[in-house]
Fold:
Amino acid sequence: MTERSYEKFFRQNRLPHLWCPGCGNGIVMKAIVQAVEKKLGWTQDNTIIVSGIGCSSRASGYMDFDTLHTAHGRAIPFATGIKLANPKLNVIVITGDGDCTAIGGNHFIHGCRRNVDLTVILFNNNIYGMTGGQASPMTPLGKKATTAPYGSIDRPFDACKLAEAAGATYVARSTAFHVQHLTKMIEDGLDNRGFSFIEALVQCPTAYGRRNKIGEPAKMMAWMRDNAIMKSAWDKLTDDKKTGDKFPIGLFYRAETETYDEAYHHVIELAGGAK
Amino acid sequence: MSARLMQGNEAVAEGALLAGVRFFGGYPITPSTEIAEGMAKLLPQVGGTFIQMEDEIASMGVVLGASLAGKKVLTASSGPGISLKQELIGYAAATEIPVVIVNVQRVGPSTGQPTAPSQGDVMQARWGTHGDHSIIVLSPWSVREAFDLAVRSVNYAERFRTPVILLMDEIVGHLRESVELPAESEIEIYPRRAPKKSRAEGYEPYAPDEDLVPNIANFGEGYHIHVTGLIHDETGFPSGSPKVTRESIKRMHEKISRAADEIIDVQEEFMDDAEFAVVAFGGTSRTAYEAVLSARKRGVKVGFVRLVTIFPFADKIISELAKKIRGLLVAELNYGQIVGEVERAAKGQCAVKLCAKYDMTIFEPEEIEAAIDEMISEVDGE
Structure:
């Protein structure tokens, strides 16, 4: 990898992107292509980027692969169809907290359960950014949003716990601050055969930070630095230390299980349709 | 080939398979489930893929993804499931992804009467998803025709890169008839359209060919295309331009309207001397045909018009008919839907009467025959 060699993965004529100044989405988008660059055999011709609707999902338009900007919440079913129709393709899904855990929640848990070989990267900005700052199922309790002007009373999802419980075979979290770590988490997710899920915490200064008086992007990233605790250290903490804004990052779960694509090949063999 | 006793739904599965469908995504719902069951059994026998999804929205999403990856695809549902599919039927229309959706209609609205026949989804088939869009809707009246129209639907989906609705009803879906199916060699199959330029030559996925249909590359062929439900220009990328928006919506309509004469298939019987005619489609046309036969035995000069293609609507044919005859009776198993299209096309040139039924039961030939007599006496009295 040479310096800025990742630039070939972007559609230069589609840049600059539409994200606000200070937004963390670009950091994760770059981490994704840097992880792809490290993967032997993964090329811009055989890797497909699928996204839903929302700020994060606009990433697909900037990335120079075959790219699919689907409907709100529906990226995982489309990605499932691509992978099963042509298992030689590598399929990456880009989604957001609203896209994945609200309108796409059912597809998300069933994607985890089904274990098709996909890598899903959730850009978690804790808010609906594209529509101007409404509360999402991952807005923390008490935080303000245009639809929660007195603070959110809606209990949030822990998307990683949800993914693990639903059957994903690789589950990890990182942040836009921990760039090297984030890239490694994505890279390992791409390596995993099966449904891989990576939650990437991103700062949204415009729609989330500003309203919650933490609007400066650098301050939001400093918050990530100060509150994210590596899984190994987190596990050693007593419960009374897991307080405040503290949250774990790292690899949470990994399992070797037959993928749906592999299992379906057995069906084809049983039915006599194998070439 | 020897005759086989087969259900309409099974015939759809067999037809789709022979037309080259290699991917099915679905969700169980009566009275369409036999199509999914048929595909679950048949597809892996030819190396294809069947998947049962978590809901009807996902069933649409998965087949659209598979279609983009190069497979010919099918999904099937009924009533509430078809309502759920509407979101991504619109996506398929906007992004020009070939897909066939079978709707084996049942009584609605809502959960309605789950196993009872109806033809209440006709206008939903045309306008169910939001926004201006074009669509092709075909409706069979027999088991053999369910097979034939399944083949035609797949071919039209590929040729025009559009969603095609195969609008069945419970009558034909669950009807068992002895049919002889054609061999693969007897069937014309429209292949997936392919790019005519390389990337270096300036390939644009949404640049229309002479027939206004774009030759969009499949994923994984190295073209690095972008597909989005946002209004896009010929490059495939979103555009905020009024001109692009207008031209894009216009082309989506015209790619189908320009070929309408070819797509529109209307069966006409006993029309040479007819003064009146019955218009029907799907399972109801079986009963309407019996009614017409019976009336003609009594010397009534009534003809039979069957809409095999429902949309694009047979405007010209109905308009021409309306000039020649005195009255059209539209028989349909709903509160009155296609009658509005017939009235619009007839432009007041003849009387248009409705024979509607929406009580879970199918028409008896006598009911339609009585409605024919009633129409004639009304028109005579006018």
Q: What stands out?
A: Residues 35 and 46 of chain A are 15 Å apart (CA to CA). The first strand of chain A starts at residue 47 and ends at 51.
